[in-house]
Design goal:
rod-shaped; about 80 residues; binds zinc ion
């Protein structure tokens, strides 16, 4: 039924997956992904996780703007609260 000689098994592919991601290669074009729904779903999950991680740990942004907003908000509060 399955012909694994020309195709990686899912286990073999998934063993390479972390390394493939590390190299920054476009995994969506990988022959195994093209033919294996299960690993395509796995990759989608990984991309969702990676995207969430990028949002949790965004590239360093200087917080100066943020502090200005907080400072002016506090000043507004002082003025209106009196
Ligand atoms: Zn697979």
């Amino acid at each position: 039924m399955t012909d694994d000689r020309d195709h990686l098994s899912c286990a073999a592919f998934q063993a390479q997956l972390a390394e493939l991601i590390g190299t920054g290669v476009d995994i969506s074009t990988h022959p195994h992904i093209q033919t294996c729904e299960q690993c395509r779903a796995l990759l989608a999950d990984l991309e969702t996780i990676a995207e969430a991680a990028r949002q949790l740990f965004p590239a360093v942004e200087p917080p100066e703007d943020l502090w200005e907003h907080i400072e002016s908000a506090l000043k507004d509060e002082e003025n209106s609260g009196n």
